[in-house]
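Hi, here's the filled form for the chain we discussed.

Project: internal
Contact: R.S.
Residues: 189
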Amino acid sequence: MRECRSQIIAAHVALALSRCSMIERVYAQAVVDIYHERTPLHARTLEFHSSRDPYDDARRNGQIVKRLLDGRVRMPVDLEESLILALPQPYQQHLQAELAERLGLMAAELPSANPAGQQHQVGDLISDVGKALDRLSPMLDDGVLDERDAVYAEAALRGLEALQARAATLCDGIRQNVLKQGGCLRSVK
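And the returned structure, exactly as it came back:
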């Protein structure tokens, strides 16, 4: 049986918090800030604490986020975006890719409109080429892809899918910024 979206989000958040320097309180505050910034007041289903005591608010809001992630409270759909965007990279990207894959889509970053962002995206493509080759190399040691390479398959596929997403982003950037056409990132499969 497949995990539901809230369980996948919770697993990625737990992984990020266990592996990076971000602590639960900081993550929870980022979730609250993003939720308030991106969700119109009339569309909010959650009410986070906001009083004269920011320390107590942070503690209480942290408890709300924790209960949502551990399943004690049902995760509302309008909070999903905030839970994802509050994650640091590369955890955010991995979660977006897994959620997109559930819908038969590939998560690709929108192309940057500014020169520094475009150069960064080209650098990311080059980096992902190296990572994909690193993940493929143990599979190609014997010169053939076969069932003996199954142990490496998942990592290799993730690397190649990340590479595809980077390439799709740059294709879209060329279409938008050079050829002045519409973008290709409608639903890349």
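Let me know if anything looks off before we file it.
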